[in-house]
Design a protein that fits this description.
It is a single chain. By secondary structure, this protein is an all-beta fold. 0% of the residues lie in helices and 70% in strands. It is built from no helices and 10 strands. Strands 1-2-3-4-5-6-7-8-9-10 form a 10-stranded antiparallel beta barrel. A hairpin with a 4-residue loop joins strand 7 and strand 8. The radius of gyration is 15 Å and the shape is globular. 17% of the residues are buried.
Length: 144
């Protein structure tokens, strides 16, 4: 049994952001992380870096059979729930104030198990009720 802080996987995160009025941006990060099973769900966590602008933040994906929850704790705080075709609201606090996020999940493709695999989550995002664009995460997880 691995402890939560023990890194046992290599995670490649590709985040594509396509905000209205801006050039699309892709951030790719490869980092060590932890993948563990708790009952029906998988928990995938890693430490953010300066590359993502979230240094000091831990990101955790909770992957359930019918939805995915993204939690950030540390210098940034947020909880976003992704259910295909559904809209959810959450608060995002990056220290300079709290913003209301409205997300509409457009894609969840889960090919992860406790040995690794791939997870894709895409969503349309509004910030403070203003349509901003779309974000897609593509995570590839391999055993170390």
């Amino acid at each position: 049994w691995r402890t939560e802080m023990e890194n046992n996987v290599l995670i490649t995160v590709c985040a594509r952001q396509n905000y209205m009025g801006q050039e699309p941006e892709t951030i790719e990060l490869t980092t060590e992380g932890c993948l563990r099973r708790e009952g029906e769900r998988l928990l995938l966590s890693y430490e953010e870096s300066e590359l993502t602008g979230l240094s000091g933040t831990t990101t955790e994906f909770e992957i359930c059979p019918d939805h995915v929850i993204l939690r950030r704790t540390g210098t940034a705080h947020s909880v976003m729930e992704f259910r295909l075709g559904q809209t959810a609201r959450s608060l995002y606090d990056a220290g300079a104030g709290t913003l209301l996020l409205t997300i509409t999940t457009t894609k969840i493709v889960n090919h992860l198990d406790e040995t690794g695999g791939n997870l894709q989550v895409a969503y349309a995002i509004e910030i403070e009720e203003l349509g901003m664009g779309e974000i897609e995460y593509d995570l590839v997880v391999t055993e170390r």
